[in-house]
Each structure stands twice: as structure tokens, then as C-alpha cells.
Amino acid sequence: MTEVSIFSRKIDPFYQALSVFLGSLFFVFLFRIIEWVGIAEAKDYLPWTMSAAGLLFFAILNSILSLAYENQNLYWLKSIVAFILLVVIGGLVSYLISGLSLNEAMSFRWLYIVFSVGYIVFLTIVRLMRKIVLIAKKQDKALRGEE
User: Fold this and answer.
1) Is residue 63 a contact partner of residue 119, using CB atoms and an 8 Å limit?
2) How many structural domains does the chain have?
3) In this predicted model, what pLDDT tens digit does every residue of 68-97 receive, in sequence order?
4) Residues 30-78: pLDDT tens digits?
5) Residue 1 falls within a domain, yes or no?
6) Residue 96 within a domain
7) Which of 48, 42, 33, 45 has its CA nearest to residue 90?
8) DSSP class per residue in 63-77
């Protein structure tokens, strides 16, 4: 039985975003239950924290999983749309749960901006690395006379 690496699986960016969103929501409700039981106290901006953490996790995961896709342009399009949906829906749900707007929730607006720019940088770095590896493989084949 051969094991298939997660990095070679083609997981659609919309499924990735949905998984991250549901995971963030799970942790928000888990911390609310812990607060309700009386074990610990959750801050009002907890949903914004989980949403921002989900964005960072999606940015890293999505960039790494882009290596498995041949059509990078289509993957980028789906990924960026999924990221925007994650930002909008995550922000809306965080607002509804916490009652705090993005401006009232401390410095989370800046985190959203930094994670968005960082996401584009991650995607670009991974795509450049992929191109460099493909060029190196092509050169290697040419040097061995396989082409």
C-alpha cells in the first residue's frame, strides 16, 4: 500500500476555505462553552482572533497545496476568490458573534491587511519556487541527454 502525501492531493481552495472557516467557528464556540462552564474567561474579540488565525492558516495551507496543481492560473483565481470569501464571511460572522465591528476589535483591521498581503506573497514565492524546480529538472534532463 502506497501512501499519498497531502502535498500531492488536489484539494479545491473552496473546500480549504470552508474547512478553515468551520474550524475557526468550532474554536469560537468551544471557547464560549469553556467560558460558560466557568473554566476560563473569553475576551469579546475572540471571534476576530479566530477569524484572523484562520486567515493565516488558510494562507499558508493554500500556498503549499498549490504545488499539486498543474493549472496555476485557475488555482490562483479560485484561491483568491476563496480568500476574499473567507475574509468577508469570517468578518461578518465575527461581527455577529462578538458585536464588535472591525474598527472596534482592537488592531484586527491591520492583521487582515497584513495577512492579505502576506497571502499574495506566499502564493508568489511558492509559484516561483515551482518554476525554478521545473527549469532545474528540464536542465538536468538536457544534461543527461534524455530530452
Assistant:
1) yes
2) 1
3) 888 888 999 999 999 999 999 999 999 998
4) 888 888 887 777 777 888 889 999 999 999 999 988 888 888 889 999 9
5) no
6) yes
7) 48
8) HHHGGG-S-HHHHHH
User: Is 2 among the domain residues?
Assistant: no
21 is a domain residue: yes
List the domain range (segments joined by +) for residue 120: 11-144
> Of 114, 118, 96, which is closest to residue 105 (Cα–Cα)?
96
Task: Report how far residue 71's alpha carbon sits from residue 85's, in angstroms, rounded to the nearest whole number.
Answer: 21
- Specify the pTM: 0.85
In angstroms, rounded to a whole number, what is the distance separating the alpha carbons of residues 85 and 18?
10
Q: Which amino acid is at 104?
A: E
Tell me the C-alpha distance between 52 and 20, whole Å: 11
Tell me which residue of 77, 81, 70 sits closest to 18, measured CA to CA.
81
